[in-house]
Amino acid sequence: MSPKTATARNPDKPRDTGEHEELISGSEAIAHACRLADVDVITAYPIRPYDTVMQYVAGMISNGDFDCEYIVAESEHSQFEIVKHASAVGARVFVGSSGVGWFYAFEALAVTAGLRLPMVAMVGNRALDDPGAFGVEHNDALAVRDLGWMLCWVETAQEALDTALIAYRVAEDTRVRLPCAISCDGAFLTHSQAIVKVPSQKMVDSFLPPYDRGDKQLHPDNPITIAPQANEDWLMEMRKQNDMAARRARGVIIEAYEDLNKKFGRGGEPFIERYMMEDAEIALVGMGTLAMPVKVAVRKMRAQGKKVGFVRVRWFRPFPTIELQDALKGVKAVGVIDRDYGFGSGFHSGVLANELRAALYPSKNRPKIASFIAGLGGREVTADNVVEITGLTRDAGNGKLDDQDTIWIGVRE
Amino acid sequence: MVANVETLDDFLKTQVLDPWKGPKKVPAAEYFTSGHRTCQGCESAQLMKLMAKAGGPRSIILGSTGCMYVANTTYYSTPWAVPWMHTQLGSSGSAATGTVAALRAMMRKGKMKKEPINVIAVCGDGGGADMGLSAISAALQHTHYNLLILLYDNESYANTDIQVSGSSPYGANSTFSTPGKVKRIMNKRWKKNTAAMLAAGHPDVRYVSTVCTAYPVDAMNSVRRALTIGGPTFVHSLDPCPKGWDYDPKFSHELGELAVETGIWPLYEVEEGQLRMIGRSKRIVEGQFKRKPVREYLRRQGRFAHFIDEDIEYFQKKIDDMWEKWLIPGVIPFAGKLNP
């Protein structure tokens, strides 16, 4: 796989007069977002499939389309630590990884959230080793779900670009100051091309203010001490501050989507996407590119008169409890499709299913929830699989299927 | 956004910090002050003080996990009058690299006032010679980044209860390498030759040195040279540690001198590819100073109290080899010739 180098400026379509369309992959879309966000420091380390974004970034820099410090680190740990420190000095940073690479950086991931540094990362979701599969699973990004990282999953290259801009705006907002990871399903999004509207610099500048660390900037003019040793006498207050920041993120994300919709004419609903959910009796729930076969199957079943809809979770942290309670009220049964696993967890479910169970527990007339694991390691989830899942979900709603277990779809016994 | 073609001057500009000729020329201003709780006789704290003085006010210090983090910066108090930030145990190289990258990008793009700022990352022997070695090596490859990695080597993981590190001397008693009735010597590793390894492995690095706080003006001038010469640099300091080495804190200075005088800790600098032995080590090489027996050094410290004569002889032989058999005495161990 060797992506073409970054698109050179086309004199017929001057960048600053309006957005233009390009046929690009999810990775290239994120690279465009980095360029448009005028990112200052980027670090790379190779691992498939996220690494394509860094190949595009390198092309943009070497072709003079993008000015930033670009460092190829000697490990993911260093990759994430380097941008962490650059962020403390006031630089806007971008970084990314996949699978076990993301785990190699785990220490840096934890401290970045603890330090409230607004790092933006792309996770090209990939199965964890061993065995060393290249395909998508969501367990890599999900592993940081309780540490203070904001996490979102995107479906298309367009959404990847737009969400990266939102991520910087929300992460750097003084009310939030938390890192944000944008998950792009490996291969299905990182390597698949689609027509993307690339916004102009003027549009992006009107949406995304510069990053200003203010009195938290590490600089000789501001000789502060960052991250001294704190023990039981202060740590709990600090954790509570992180908690408050994570709570405030919700409102800031809503503001960002409102502004994006106004200025870009797209962006949709923050947190979740509701697909054919009007009068739906059976709702499917999932994240990422899984949406494509699910939407195809939902349309097919709707054509047959079946009242089926789909809710795509766009933001996993902060978890859209209110939106999901609202979207799923009134449905008879919910089928959650996890592209991840939670070995030994409650009901042996994936992570999303158990989060959703918890979110819906306080709801009046809560629906039956059936839980499915599908598409691990990049295995294709077909429209037929989705029809099968829908039937089983209906059975759970009718009491014909045990809703306290998890069913693996499309797996050889 | 127009790409900026950098000139050599853009990335090689550093502060000019001339050497201080004698202790009376050293300014009184301190940038590592009160507010820490390091042990009595802690030579690493002394090194921090000297380093901060040598770098001056326009410096950013990054401190990886270790004594100089835990004992120096307790929340609600800090000894640092210059900006300081904690970094992870293995991240001194990455912290320096990221800090310099941000300064460069922001100054180049007009987001920050242009000026040379010293960036110094400090690490202990655990963080530097063990866990952080690969990140330090990577930092030293960024030849257009002005940064200094300062390794304060107290020869154990001293903040976590004195555990053996790759930089601990042969046989030293530590909580992870206790001498017992059956195994008298548990740490059979010989101390890692970190500074010379980094100098030899990164020939584009313009300055690598070893220092000891027993010679404070030399140590400060070494830091000043490292910050002035341009590009990434590395300074390795041997810091006697009363807690880890088990001696009365009043002997810290004396033990530093003994480490040099016995030949255990050679002082040298590699500047622009040229090796120079310093001070007493130079006199050893030139035959003007006879190395003291290692027994004088070992017997002063509780961590070697279990040594029998045989152990001391072994230690002495290893040190003799360093000075008599190595290609470059005390620095490069390869013996022999390419065309015998």
Architecture overview:
The complex is a heterodimer of chains A (413) and B (340). Chain A folds into two domains: 15-264, Rossmann fold; 272-408, 3-Layer(aba) Sandwich (Rossmann fold), CATH 3.40.50. Helix content of chain A is 37%, strand content 18%. Chain A contains 13 helices and 16 strands. Chain A has helices spanning 26-36, 52-62, 76-89, 99-104, 106-114, 139-142, 157-172, 201-207, 235-264, 291-303, 321-327, 351-360, 383-397, and strands at 20-25, 41-44, 69-72, 93-97, 120-125, 150-153, 180-185, 193-198, 225-226, 272-275, 282-286, 308-313, 315-317, 333-338, 368-373, 406-408. In chain A, strands 3-2-4-5-7-6-13 form a seven-stranded mixed beta sheet, with helices on both faces. A six-stranded mixed beta sheet of chain A has the order 10-12-11-14-15-16, sandwiched between helices. Chain A has a two-stranded antiparallel sheet with strand order 1-8. In chain A, helix 2 (52-62) links the parallel strand 2 and strand 3. The longest helix of chain A is centred in the middle third of the chain and has 30 residues, at 235-264. Residues 1-9 and 13-17 of chain A have low confidence and may be disordered. Chain B has a single domain (8-324), classed as Rossmann fold (3-Layer(aba) Sandwich), CATH 3.40.50. Chain B is built from 13 helices and eight strands. Chain B has helices at residues 8-12, 43-55, 67-70, 92-108, 125-131, 133-141, 194-201, 216-228, 242-245, 252-261, 279-285, 294-298, 309-324; strands spanning 59-64, 84-87, 118-124, 147-153, 207-212, 232-238, 268-271, 274-277. An eight-stranded mixed beta sheet of chain B has the order 2-1-3-4-6-5-7-8, sandwiched between helices. In chain B, strand 1 (59-64), helix 3 (67-70) and strand 2 form a beta-alpha-beta unit. In chain B, helix 2 crosses helix 8 and helix 4 (92-108) runs parallel beside helix 6 (133-141). The longest helix of chain B has 17 residues, at 92-108. Mean pLDDT of chain B is 94; it is low at 1-5. Classes of the chains: A alpha/beta (413), B alpha/beta (340). At the A-B interface, helix 3, helix 5 and strand 9 of A face strand 1, strand 2, helix 4 and helix 6 of B. Strand 9 of chain A pairs parallel with strand 2 (84-87) of chain B, so a sheet runs across the interface.
